[in-house]
Amino acid sequence: MKVTAAASSLKSIHIASRCAALLTVLVGLFPANIVNAAEPTRPNVLLIISDDLNNFLGCYDDPRARTPNLDRLAARGVLFERAYCTFPLCGPSRNSMLTGLYPNSTGIYQNSQIFRQTVPQHLSLPQAFRRQGYFAARLGKLYHYGVPGSVGTSGDDDPASWELQMNPAGIDRLGDPARIFSLVPGQFGGTLSWYASPASDERHTDGILANDAQWVLQRCAADRQRPFFLAVGFFRPHTPYVAPRDPYFGYYPAADMPVVSGIEADRADLPAAAVASGKAVQDRMSDELRRQAMQAYYASISFMDAQVGRVVDALDRLALADDTIIVFTSDHGYHMGEHGLWQKMSLFEESLRVPLLVVAPGVTTAGAVVRQPVSQVDLYPTLAHLCGIEPAATLQGESLVPVLKDPTHAARGWALSQVNRGQGNKRYFGYSLRTDRWRYTEWDGGDAGRELYDHDNDPRELTNLAEDPAHAAEVQRLSQLLRDAVGGSFPESGTAPKVRNRRWYPKLDAAQ
Ligand SMILES: [Ca+2]
Ligand SMILES: [Ca+2]
Question: Is 144 helix (H, G, I), strand (E, B) or coil?
Answer without folding.
Answer: coil
